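Write out the bound-state structure for NDP.
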Amino acid sequence: MSTSPERLKCLIIGSGPAGYSAAIYAARADLKPVMITGPLPGGQLTQTTEVDNYPGYPNGRTGPDMMEDLMAQAMRFGTDVRNGWVTKVDFSGPVHKVWVDEKTEIHADTVLICTGANAKWLGLPNETRLRDIGGGVTACAVCDGFFYKGQTVALVGAGDSACEEATYLAKLCPKVYMLVRKDEFRASKAMVHRVENTPNIEVLFNTEVTDVLGKDIVEGIAIVNNKTKTASKLDVTGLFLAIGHTPATAVFKDWLDMDAQGYLKHTPDRTVTKVPGVFVAGDCADHVYRQAVTSAGSGCMAALDAERWLALEGKH
Ligand code: NDP
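---
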């Protein structure tokens, strides 16, 4: 016997700061939101340590603790938080269809897309292989750094994340090589100073990884200085990537406009997409700011936009 799909006023996809902020506002507006968390409940902040730049936390807060707080706040107002992954959508009709984990079909008047972004990789065959077998290649120092305590590791990247992760690893590892492909950092001065003031981080500028060595676990990396073309080997047992992120938007590609990198397009200063009733917020639609606080702000905007749209449509 087939049952008809669940019908909602408001479905939120993604559980980072944007998703939870949207949920708090939507729940308080009595939209009875359901949230589908995505594959990493809590989003990217669950993979970071101290968050010192979120207003209202004078002594900082860890990312995981902050996400627990946000979830508790969203649930306090009645948000129905469900673990799952949206695998298909159909935005062709007035009611938006969403499939969770390929099997559960949900219908919603409004969909708030807050899916965030995923880590980038170098694309080297041995990097992928060793990553997939858990052999010592990872994009999350905070998740995996513990396993490399007392070991020598390398980290690729030159942005704020790379600096943050390198200093995190330096607390666990006696030696951290930081591989920067240009002759300068991209990170903010404050973050670069943290790296420069950490004696066990050695920064190698103009340096790229050409191969990851080892059959079952990382036994070293092959590197090249891209100015002098000098090739060498670094004896490390872990390789950490911190080279940016790709927006998690592939599932929407047939329905929404996106830029060349996959960031979802929306009306300037609004969260409105070209599909009525579908709104976007957070890192999946922001390649400029990408901060927890800006994500939270846009999540609030998406919920307000959804509420107003429902009212105008006579649906709320
Ligand atoms: P970014 O996009 O800022 O930096 C990515 C870095 O990776 C760049 O330095 C880039 O090098 C390097 N890179 C990219 N591809 C490769 C490659 N194939 N090989 C080697 N290096 C590569 O990403 P982040 O994740 O660092 O930061 C994202 C956003 O989040 C930023 O806006 C950042 O400010 C913010 N952020 C803020 C934090 C805070 O305030 N506490 C903490 C972490 C992030 P190149 O410079 O040569 O292009």
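---
Residues 196 and 232 are 24 Å apart (CA to CA).
The chain has two domains: 6-118+245-312, 121-241.
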